[in-house]
Amino acid sequence: MYFDYETITPGNKVSNYEELESEIKSLINNSDSLSEERKKVRNLLYDKQNQNIVANRFINYLI
Predict the structure, then answer these.
(1) Neighbours of 30 (CB within 10 A)
(2) Which residues, 6 or more positions from 22, have their beta carbon under 8 angstroms from its beta carbon?
(3) A GO molecular function for this record (predicted)?
(4) Rounded Cα–Cα distance for residues 34 and 41 (Å)
(5) What is the DSSP letter of 30?
(6) Per-residue pLDDT for 52 more than 80?
(7) How far apart are the first and last CA of the chain?
(8) Alpha carbon distance 40, 11 (integer Å)
(9) Residues whose CB falls within 8 Å of the CB of residue 14, separated by 6 or more in sequence, listed in order
(10) What pLDDT score does 41 carry?
(11) What are the helix (H) ranges across 1-63?
(12) CA 48, CA 63: separation in Å to the nearest integer?
């Protein structure tokens, strides 16, 4: 990878589906203490004009 993995992936690391589901539910139901760190990564990796387009496509795909 071009970037250090730990630097561009703030938050808990999961190793199976159950942990992933639990982490997603936790983020939905609680405040995200790493919100500012995630914004920094988003701004680093995605052009600001396309951020909402990418996010909406991803959400629609998941639904």
Answers:
(1) 8
(2) 14
(3) CDP-glycerol glycerophosphotransferase activity
(4) 11
(5) S
(6) no
(7) 29
(8) 13
(9) 20, 22, 23
(10) 85
(11) 5-8, 17-29, 35-45, 51-62
(12) 24
